[in-house]
Amino acid sequence: MPGSPSALLYVFLALPILYLLGFVGFPIVYNLMMSVQEVNLGNITEFIRPFVGLDNYRTVIADESFQKVLVNTLLFVGCNVLAQVAIGLAVALFFAQDFPGAGFMRGLLLCSWMLPALVVGALWKWIFATEYGVANYVLSALHLIGSPIHWLSDPAVALTSVTLANIWFGMPFSMILIAAALTAIPKEHYEAASLDGAGSTARFWYITLPALKPALLAVACLVTIYTMRAFDLIFAMTQGGPLDASNVLPLLSYQFSFKQFDFGTGSAMGSFAFLIVFGVALLYVRTLKQETAS
Amino acid sequence: MIYGGIKAFNESQSEYRIDPRIVPGPQMDSELIKAIASGSVPDLVTLDNPVVASFSAQGTLTDLTERVGKSAVVKPDVYFKGPWASGLWKQRIFAVPRDANTLALCYNADMFKVKGLDPDKPPKTWTELLDAAKALKDPAKNVYGFGFSAVQAEEGVFQFLPFLHQAGGAVDKLDTPEATEALEFWAGMVKDGVASRDVINQRQYEVTNTFMAGNAAMVMCGPWELPRLQKEAKFEWRLALLPVKPGKDIAASALGGYDWVVPKGAKQADGAFRFIEFMSDPKILNEGWKTGRLAPRTDVTVTDPLWPQAYGIYRKQLESARARGPHPQWPEISRAIQIAMQEAVTGTKPAATALADAARKIKPILAKTPL
């Protein structure tokens, strides 16, 4: 940086740091603090509460529903990331073709992403209803299924159902980010490749995909972070049931804190969710650094 | 009832003014917790009655005992026992019931006629209920005989408790044959296809939706659904008392409703109590029925009520309605029951095992504070 740093510079530096400390740092520290305390409705206003060490964490790890929900969360997030990036990429490539209404329809697709998650959840609950739902109607009309699928009431299927709904809900967002990255690839590369005799597959493998790599990684990280926070959609569809089959960490943490008034345990669960997101964020920052270094 | 009451109260005096804020039911607890945690509480809140004990036992509500003692309107002995008990903690009064509700059997009289059943003779026992449900179900038309909510939430427990009590079971005795019979009766209906497997995921209003859409011939239904039924159901619907278990003949239903509470630290506790008194006036409570709310007081009889047949049934059913708790850890007890319900209904575990597991979870809670 040329010249000596002026006082104003420190002010500009202090503002974001204070903001981060106040609005990001404090909640994290406060949550960690609550996770090692016994917190109930009676002492929630106080800062000094009975210290219980790692008891809350022990309770959480021993809790059957937590173990199940942790696995659910990893599956839910993993499938969402893979599917949203893959489908998002495919759809973005499709709309990058030159045909009438391409841009308009791509914009239209974003509508679903703009709907409130609770509305989307209610919609999918309807689609997945066993008797009068569209999903079973279409599948049985096409003779793909013999008997109706209990999308949301069968513990073996419920997680798949909410995952499908969330992929539909989140995919347009990935798609639009990937589409933006696509437009940044210079057209000349494709022209030159075509002249050299590269087919569409070769062009995709050797030009599009390498050029998109940083964008795809960024999208994957963002989708991870967004789906780790999934709450309202599942809340509207199944409330995490049946038997926590479709429950994820944020919802379980909410249920412990705000339905059972067991804030310490709820916070300990929040810490686990935070750890996962934090890990992904670190990975993201590292990949970005490597990307710029190379 | 609430809006009319607030308007009338604000016009009746100039000392206090009520500024209402609407919070959706499911968010009520978390909003109040946030208010308590941040130290700026509203002066008056309505809470779902089973959670009141959680708040009062932890000392987050204003003790209203003295104010009730001096009140000319809020007199404990005129209230139904269940609703009044929900506001008590260690003989102190922390809440005044605002309204009461309970469950009854709602049935589609047109379907009864089509299937050759007499709509004037709704099922009175579990056996009759099952027989009627079997006769009414029509898989070709997507019609189930019976509908209820077994959702993993307090609502599901609210709908299960009537059966538990009718069988002679109790929340503190879940590992008994009586409790098992109740849960097996529920789970059996799903297994036999008399009730939809989706009951596991249906909230109460969704159960009513299936009824109104003609997908369920009989459902468990609360009076708050009456305005909706009136407007949207395109067939003749009627109500009946919940059937009893043959040989036991125990009339039972669940008690629901909201309580007025004044959070601790409220700036206008006296004004809040004035409004509670205003709203507890039989004249105001009388209006509640128009939106499907029963009065929590025994000295209120709605003359010439809307939906007179339904009113008679609910009013009668209220007499056998039992409060949930009051217990400060009711939500934890409830969760154990929810899991047992879902295990049995999905067939993950036999009813007896599921209930034994629930009883094991509930035991230490009740050892600390009995019901």
Explain how this protein is built.
The complex is a heterodimer of chains A (294) and B (371). Chain A has 294 residues and is mainly α. In chain A, 73% of the residues lie in helices and 0% in strands. Chain A contains 12 helices and no strands. The longest helix of chain A has 33 residues, at 64-96. The radius of gyration of chain A is 23 Å and the shape is flat. The mean pLDDT of chain A is 88. Chain B has 371 residues and is α+β, with helices and mostly antiparallel strands. Chain B has 16 helices and 12 strands. In chain B, the strands form 4 sheets. Chain B has a 4-stranded mixed β-sheet with strand order 7-8-6-9, with helices on both faces. In chain B, strands 1-11-4 form a 3-stranded antiparallel β-sheet. In chain B, β2 and β3 (92-93) form a beta hairpin. The mean pLDDT of chain B is 92. The A-B interface holds A 40-42, 44-45, 125, 129-132, 150, 152-155, 238-244, 254, 258-262 and B 29-30, 33, 36-37, 39, 54-55, 58-60, 142, 144, 151-154, 196-201, 213, 215, 329, 331-332, 335, 339, 342-343, 345-346, 348.
Largest sheet of chain B: 4 strands, mixed
Mean pLDDT level of chain A: 88
Q: Summarize the amount of helix of chain B as a percent range.
A: 40-55%
Strand order of the largest sheet of chain B: 7-8-6-9
Number of helices of chain B: 16
Keywords:
heterodimer; A: 12 helices; B: 371 residues; alpha+beta; three-stranded antiparallel sheet
Write the layout of secondary structure elements.
The complex is a heterodimer of chains A (294) and B (371).
Chain A: H1 7-35, H2 55-62, H3 64-96, H4 102-114, H5 117-127, H6 134-141, H7 158-183, H8 187-195, H9 200-228, H10 232-237, H11 249-259, H12 263-293
Helix pairs in contact in A: 1-12, 2-12, 3-7, 3-9, 4-7, 7-9, 9-12, 11-12
Chain B: H1 2-12, H2 28-38, E1 45-48, H3 49-57, H4 65-70, H5 81-85, E2 88-89, E3 92-93, E4 95-97, E5 101-102, E6 104-108, H6 109-114, H7 126-136, E7 144-147, H8 154-166, H9 177-191, H10 204-212, E8 216-221, H11 226-232, E9 237-240, E10 253-256, E11 258-261, H12 269-279, H13 282-287, H14 308-318, E12 321-322, H15 330-346, H16 351-368
